[in-house]
Amino acid sequence: MRFIVDSMLGDVARWLRMLGYDTLYSKNYEDWEILRIAAKDDRVIITRDLGLFRRARKRGLKAVYIEPSDMSDMLASIAKRTGIELNFKPNRTRCPYCNAELEVITKAEALSFVPPSVGAKYDMFWRCPKCGKVFWQGNHWRTINSILESAKMKVGR
User: Fold this and answer.
1) Which pairs count as long-range contacts for 103-109, CB under 8 Å and 24+ apart, including other chains?
2) pLDDT, tens digit, for every residue of 35-77?
3) pTM higher than 0.90 for the full model?
4) Were 126 and a residue from 21, 51, 74, 135 both cysteine, which residue would form a disulfide, CB within 3.0 to 4.6 Å?
5) Residue 151: CB atoms within 10 Å
6) Pairwise CA distance, residues 123 & 68, whole Å
7) How remote is the C-alpha of 83 from its chain's centroid?
8) Domain of 50?
9) Which positions ≥6 away from 96 have C-beta within 8 Å?
10) Does residue 113 fall inside a structural domain?
11) CATH number of 46's domain
């Protein structure tokens, strides 16, 4: 499943990418561009704009309207409407910044990109082949896992 997310939901786009879903996002997309891209690429529109949601549905496009709420509520809402999995898959994750598929790299490779303290603490690393950013499961993963578990409970999975 592939998505396109409106300009009001950049955080949602990053979460979907982290979960491995091909997700287009730009602060500069106009509504007409979102509709055109969704139709051309068979993408589900994720939006907080009720007008955009209604126009998408009139055109027969898949769309999910998200009410403003916390991240676990928004992810649960998307999962209920689309059936996406709310699980992090280490070998199927994407760059939260540019949407490219991340590559797992060895700790030895990561040591040339990360501070020594990070290399000493963590063993699993990913690198984006497009933008070059390196990622690891730091302390913020407690929060990420908590949000995902909360969203799963709301979905009933």
Assistant:
1) 103/127, 103/128, 103/129, 105/134
2) 999 999 999 999 999 999 999 999 999 999 999 899 999 999 9
3) yes
4) 135
5) 23
6) 36
7) 15
8) 3-82
9) 14, 17, 18
10) no
11) 3.40.50
